[in-house]
Amino acid sequence: MMMKAQDIMSTEVVTIRGSATVAEAVTLMKQHNIRTLIVERRHETDAYGIVTETDIVYKVAAFGKDPKKSRVYEIMTKPCIVVNPDLGVEYVARLFANTGIRRAPVIRGELLGIISVTDILQKSDFAERPKSVLLEQSIQQAIEEARSICASKGANSAECAAAWDAVEEMQAEAAHQRAERLYKTAFEDHSRH
Q1: 76-112 exposure pattern, b = at least 16 Cβ within 10 A, e = fewer
Q2: CA angle, corner 103, sides to 54 and 6, nearest 5?
């Protein structure tokens, strides 16, 4: 069973208003020993925002701006990328890799938590149970099953075709994980023999 965002997210999320000063944001970060604040929505249909210590350093400190006069809404990212609590950890990691972000709020209607690259490293089971290894094992089993189905039902049967389709789906997912192109499917390999 793949771990989900909700399994490893932190539920202790500190929020701030967009109208708050950057100095207030810095104080909150220091008090809670955190690097990110989620910016509250102004109303039900508004988007959440996010402000990080990097935003503060790069957009305020680096320019010598007064944090007591700068507002969170001036430096935050909004709308920010959000994660569904049911999203598998592997897909959260892929989302982070593709967007270059390091953390995101976990939201289903309301703010439930925050998930970061640190959570993925420290709390998920990807190191003990890498999906690619599990997938490779499943592919080998599916190939054996497909061969036996085709042997018993016939190479041109619908069951045989469906069994190889299932193998190809798994191979495509494995190739996507490796960020590689699938050169030859198991069925093409099987057909040559």
Answers
A1: beeebebbeeebbbbebbebbeeeebebbbbbeeebb
A2: 155
The pLDDT of residue 176 is: 72
Please name the residue that has the structure tokens 């699938």: 182
Q: DSSP letter at 130?
A: -
- In this prediction, residue 188 carries a pLDDT of 65
The counts of H helices and E strands in the chain are: 9, 5
Single-letter amino acid code for the residue at 108: R
pTM: 0.67
Assign 190 a pLDDT band (cuts: 50, 70, 90): low
- The C-alpha atoms of residue 161 and residue 84 are separated, in whole angstroms, by 35
* DSSP one-letter code for 97: H
